[in-house]
Amino acid sequence: MGRATVGALEPPGVCMSSTVVTRWSRPQDASFTFPEQHLPLIQRTDATGVCFSGGGTRAQCAAVGQLRALSMLGLLADVRYISSVSGGSWGTAPFLWGDPGRRDEDLLGPHTRPEDITMDALEAPIPTTCILSTATTNLDAAMGDQRAVDTPTDRIWTEAVGAVYLAPFDLHNPQSPAFLTGSTKERDTIVARNPALADHPFLCARAPERLPYHVINSCILGPAELEPFTDESPLSFETTPLYGGNPQRREQLYFSKDGRWQEARLGGGYVESFALGSSQLVSIDGANLVTVAAPTRPFTLADAVGTSSAAFAGVTASISGLLRGLGSLTPTYTGWSLEADAPSHHMAMGDGGVLENYGLLTLLRRQVQRVVVFINTSTALDLDYEPEACVPDTDQIDSFLPALFGFRHSSFGTALQNNQVFAGADWAPLVRALQAARRDGRPVVHHTRHTVLENLVWGIDGGYEVEVLWCYLERVPQWEDRLPDDVGAAVDRGHRLFFKGELARFPHYKTAGQDSLADVHLSPEQARLLADFTCETVQMDATIFADLLRRRT
């Protein structure tokens, strides 16, 4: 498929006042509730959620298949939240935002049972109406397009992500960047407070009355002018249809590797999504309304999805000395702590997976009580790992999972040390159950109950019970045995001879460099087969998913 046209980032002639009036929500206020609590969606659903992990186009394609299955099973109407990180955001954002006239089946594509899969069908171009098609687009080339039109370096990644993963679905227009909001009703409320925005474009959630509420997870790394930092201490950042920010107030010192330092106050609550990027508080206008300095440009869906998936940009920043003349590719954002005297800061933004790659902790912050966690990882589950004996190595199980149980475990570029929400005693039984499923050749899915531990860093209240359906991306012989001989042979060949062949490593495609060193895109065969696989494996356990998500309390 072609790439979206690129051009000037700022739209000509946009009329905006110097200030905007926005709702704000702060946990320290006695009346605080998460702003979505008034939505009809909340009233008709239990406290359920589905998490789609990060992992580049592998995670994107897996998420499309999983969404397809949940849609086919009629379960999405029972889900209150979808929480996504990085590649999971590439898959979910085009589905949850934009034109309500787009059909689910067009966006997610048709499902093919394993018996009916053919190599010819896998190799066919994917229709551009399907989200899977964007997984086959060269993101590195899109970044080159942005460099060619002199896009500012801190916008290159975001604009490339917008052009590749969002523009094909009319969700990104650099000539006319849109504010974010939940619905046309919410837009009208915003415009009534801010008449100068009447002619400005707004992008709404696609079907807020029937589809889950979207939480897109990113993080704030620190003041952009200090990058790279001596020691990163990121703060989680959420973008949702109605609001964005972080409810946890933080005040700390940030140190640059060249000896400079700066104190910054951040977090403390949420403002409406259209007001993200505002630079300071001007006045408090009531119990939940404030006037703030208007953003210099809208914080768009591309900003939300681009920062959620900014791992590549972050790595580039860490080796910036090798890229003289290019500068940091880390996306930036203007933020301030929700306090009357708080200064604004120009902040470097990071991938949601720097802190937590599933999007689970932001849902526990909302006291979700039943949740599906899709771990669309590149790490195969090691059957020889003894969970009672030691903390796993990074090649034995997905590296983000042990931290939730209190094990100090991390990978390059992550900060997982504050992520414990479950008892360490729950770790070994979970791992043993996942290993047993893999040995049996069935989908690696296991249902658990955990008492949530208090986590002050994430603002999670402990002491309540959550049910989790852990879904670990892994080979499923029961599915592979149903494939036609030639397709099954191609999958098997991809695990021999040092992972060579079109379907090498299936389903654990590399997050970057699967087929070429510089990019993350997949071939139509790789994308389509992975989505068909994850769709079918969810349906193989349809009863388990339905019991968790459809059950009413």
Give an account of the 3D structure.
The radius of gyration is 22 Å and the shape is globular. Strands 1, 2, 3, 6, 7, 8, 11, 12, 13, 14, 15, 16, 17 and 18 form a 14-stranded mixed beta sheet that branches. It has 16 helices and 18 strands. Helices cover 27% and strands 19% of the residues. It is α/β, with parallel strands linked by helices and 553 residues long.
Write the layout of secondary structure elements.
Layout lengths: L18 E7 L14 H5 L3 E5 L3 H17 L8 E5 L1 H10 L7 H5 L10 H5 L15 H10 L4 H14 L12 E3 L2 H10 L8 E3 L8 E11 L11 E5 L3 E4 L3 E6 L5 E6 L2 E4 L8 E4 L4 E5 L7 H8 L2 H8 L13 E5 L7 E8 L8 H5 L5 E6 L51 H13 L4 E8 L13 E8 L4 H4 L4 H9 L30 H17 L1 H9 L3
Parallel strand pairs: 2-3, 2-16, 3-6, 4-5, 16-18
Antiparallel strand pairs: 1-11, 1-13, 6-7, 6-15, 7-8, 8-11, 9-10, 12-13, 14-15, 17-18
Q: Give the total of beta strands.
A: 18
Main sheet summary? 14 strands, mixed
Q: What would you call the quaternary organization?
A: single chain
| Whole-number mean pLDDT | 91
Low-pLDDT stretches: 1-15, 316-326
Per DSSP, the total helix count is 16
N-to-C span = 46 Å
Task: Fill in the keyword field for this structure.
alpha/beta, two-stranded parallel sheet, 553 residues, 14-stranded mixed sheet, globular, disordered N terminus
Report a brief summary of the structure:
By secondary structure, the chain is of the alpha/beta class.
